[in-house]
Design goal:
Length: 272
């Protein structure tokens, strides 16, 4: 039974990571072939650096992802604190259900509904162009927000409620106790939520496609437009770079969680 479970686990990992490995390998392929590795080269990375349209879409994607991450992290942390302090279980359950809707709702439904709302609002306001960078930013914050709440709220539930009360007893104002005690305690959840918001925004295509305006193109939309002709190996090189950037962020997040987990018993011993 153990052997079968191990084999099944290995097959799952092979199924998940084999496409990524193939992508990494063929980003260094000397030819455009996806079946024969003819030799090692870095020419696709060099050509990527000279593709101004693709680099512009990368800049737009990073700008959008960073903006959505910052806004959703602040709003998500504040919303988590508000939900955590609710005394009514019914109201808390209702808000948790509403929070989960953007995650469970199909992306195409979310994208179409947001597009209709933005077009309707734009016509009411008499705007010449209803869709723009700002509509995409609002849309990305909408679906990134639940992921931040999902990471921060459990940290608030795990935190000792006596800590901020003790800080206030020692002279801190409620606001200062929040920044000095609560924020450090839930920081792993905040960082994890921020990274998830960044990656979700970076990866999104469907919602971005329906809410994007003329003159602002993200990388997923750029790649989709290239599939109508052909996807060059430059995209393999770009995907490889993005993969290692996201991998580095995940490693930093995990190391931060481990350091804080090790430091927590030491703080408890000192307080005792």
């Amino acid at each position: 039974m153990k052997t079968a479970s191990r084999v099944f686990t290995v097959l799952i990992f092979v199924f998940l990571f084999a496409p990524i490995v193939i992508l990494l390998v063929f980003s260094f392929n000397d030819s455009k072939s996806l079946s024969v590795f003819t030799g090692f080269t870095l020419k696709w990375y060099r050509e990527l650096l000279h593709d101004q349209t693709t680099l512009s879409s990368v800049r737009n994607t990073i700008l959008l992802a960073v903006s959505a991450m910052a806004i959703s992290t602040v709003m998500g942390t504040a919303a988590s604190v508000g939900i955590h302090r609710l005394r009514s279980r019914w109201l808390r359950a209702t808000l948790n259900t509403v929070t989960d809707i953007p995650m469970t709702n199909p992306d195409i439904i979310t994208g179409i509904s947001l597009m209709l709302m933005f077009v309707f609002a734009g016509r009411l306001l008499g705007l010449s162009q209803s869709l723009s960078f700002w509509t995409m930013l609002i849309a990305h914050v909408t679906f990134c927000l639940p992921y931040v709440i999902l990471q921060v709220l459990p940290k608030l539930n795990q935190m000792d409620p006596a800590l901020p009360e003790a800080a206030q007893d020692l002279g801190c104002t409620p606001l200062r106790a929040f920044f000095k005690v609560t924020i450090p305690e839930i920081m792993p959840g905040i960082l994890t939520g921020a990274i998830m918001a960044f990656t979700m925004s970076l990866d999104d295509f469907v919602i971005s496609y329906f809410t994007s305006g003329a003159g602002f193109q993200t990388l997923p939309i750029r790649i989709y437009s290239m599939t109508k002709k052909t996807v060059t190996p430059k995209m393999y090189a770009l995907a490889t770079i993005i993969f290692f950037v996201i991998l580095a962020l995940l490693i930093v997040s995990n190391l931060t969680d481990q350091d804080r987990a090790k430091a927590r018993p030491l703080r408890q011993k000192r307080s005792d």
